[in-house]
Design goal:
Elements: H1 3-11, E1 29-30, H2 41-55, H3 70-78, E2 89-91, H4 95-107, E3 115-119, H5 124-135, E4 141-145, E5 158-164, H6 176-185, E6 189-193, H7 205-208, E7 212-215, E8 230-233, H8 277-290, H9 295-315, E9 319-320, E10 332-336, H10 340-349, E11 352-353, E12 355-357, E13 361-365, H11 373-388
Parallel strand pairs: 1-11, 3-4, 3-5, 5-6, 6-7
Antiparallel strand pairs: 2-8, 7-8, 9-10, 10-13, 12-13
Helix pairs in contact: 1-11, 2-8, 3-8, 4-5, 9-11
This protein binds pyridoxal-5'-phosphate and (2S)-2-amino-4-(2-amino-3-hydroxyphenyl)-4-oxobutanoic acid (3DJ).
């Protein structure tokens, strides 16, 4: 396909108008929105209003003018993106903390089931938090198996299967429907980490019959660095599970100021402390960008952008570790190369921001709201040049930074 073909695809692209909603630096090709999404213009205005008016002028009155309901209001805005009902999602804390809450609760459902089952090579925080959760429950343990062995490892001692739907390194995607069904047949609950799925691939937790989920909002949802995460509990579990972090915001009557804890009905019991309103304001503005955007259109465009980079990678002789079948992958593409770190640095020096994942993965995110076909084609051309002329072998590209 030629540059003109990609220009024609951009001209016909229903999502092309979304690009103007983001404050991306001119000339930059940003292929790292799967790690930190860019700043929406609306966020700047929302933060100004939050700081100057809501905090500055309205002060504590703002708690009754929209702040106290922010966790459930934002949860309701995320719900359609993950195929959940609005009363099944709440926003607060980090993905790591939310994982702890849900894993701890799931471990206490059936005393005969004390195992968290997960995937070797899952995103580290998922496994680290699972270690912490089992350490707090006598007799509990973490079982980690290869992704191909998950279904067979669903023994009768498993309390909860913890999986990241789209793998952070390879973009491999689990079959949510099939694995949820297999987990239920084995008598366990399933907890999906949707950090690399939400805003990227169409997710339907209700259709899959999923029990629990968490996910990150600073990647494809563009909520800002460290934006509060979300937590999902299917309605049928809401009265049966309780948070181990029984803070006052999860109390049925926080402003009764009682000594004894009694959990709220519904999703509010998953709150612990006071919501971080500055961060909530940024996230709400970015969620509003998603209102009215069809997730299937986003996914179709992602698949088209993926093919452009896959072709460039093939032409450059790179090994692609992301599945070619769109049904089995997420919205990034990863190439394995012994000099992946240096290649990522050489690309950054040429205005293409992607990232590197230890030890040998070059990862490029495809975010249809602000990347066009021609943009991705240009990134692919730059990638081909960097490989062909071996410019990545320059010594300055070997220097590792603290955050990669
Ligand atoms: C699969 C997955 N889970 C969780 C996280 C992050 O958790 P937290 O926001 O708590 O750092 C990430 C990325 O940072 C991730 O890729
Ligand atoms: N959360 C991050 C951070 O605080 C610093 C650097 C990167 C991140 C990330 O989000 C990493 C990301 N989850 C990943 O998939 O690799």
């Amino acid at each position: 396909m030629t540059r003109d073909d990609h220009r024609a695809a951009d001209a016909a692209d229903p999502l092309a108008i979304c690009r103007a909603q983001f404050a991306l630096p001119a000339g930059l090709l940003y292929l790292d929105g799967n790690s930190l999404g860019p700043l929406p213009h609306a966020t700047v205005a929302a933060m100004t209003d939050m700081v100057e008016r809501q905090w500055g002028q309205r002060l504590i009155r703002s708690w009754n003018e929209g702040w106290i309901d922010a966790p459930t209001r934002l949860g309701a805005k995320i719900a359609p993106l993950i195929g959940a009902h609005s009363h099944e999602v709440i926003v607060g804390d980090s993905t790591s903390v939310n994982l702890y809450k849900l894993l701890s609760a799931a471990l206490r459902v059936d005393p005969q089931r004390r195992v968290i089952l997960s995937e070797a090579g899952n995103f580290p925080t998922d496994l680290h938090v699972a270690e912490g959760a089992v350490a707090a429950v006598p007799g509990a343990s973490l079982r980690v198996v290869d992704r191909s062995a998950i279904a067979d490892a669903l023994a009768d001692d498993v309390a909860v299967l913890l999986l990241t739907h789209v793998h952070y390194k390879t973009a491999e995607r689990f079959d949510m429907v099939a694995l949820t069904r297999a987990t239920h047949e084995a008598g366990a609950l399933v907890l999906w980490d949707l950090s690399h799925s939400v805003g990227a691939v169409p997710v339907d937790l209700t259709a899959a019959g999923a029990d629990l989920a968490v996910g990150c909002t600073y990647k494809y949802l563009n909520g800002g660095p460290g934006a509060p995460a979300f937590l999902y509990v299917a309605e049928r579990w809401q009265d049966r599970l309780a948070s181990p972090l029984s803070g006052w915001m999860g109390h049925v009557e926080p402003f009764a100021f009682t000594d004894a804890y009694a959990p709220s009905r519904g999703m509010k019991r998953w709150l612990a402390g006071t919501p971080p309103m500055l961060a909530m304001a940024a996230l709400e503005a970015s969620l509003d960008v998603w209102a009215g955007i069809d997730r299937h259109t986003v996914w179709e465009k992602s698949a088209a952008l993926w093919t452009i980079l896959a072709d460039a990678g093939r032409a450059a002789g790179l090994e692609c570790v992301t599945p070619a079948d769109p049904a089995h992958r997420g919205s990034h593409i990863s190439f394995r190369h012994p000099a992946a770190y240096a290649i990522a640095q050489a690309l950054i020096a040429r205005g293409v921001i992607g990232d590197f994942r230890d030890p040998d993965i070059l990862r490029l995110g495809l975010t249809p709201l602000y990347l066009g076909h021609e943009d991705v084609w240009r990134a692919g051309e730059i990638l081909r040049n960097v490989i062909a002329d071996r410019s990545y072998t320059a010594p300055e590209y070997r220097q590792r930074q603290a955050v990669t």
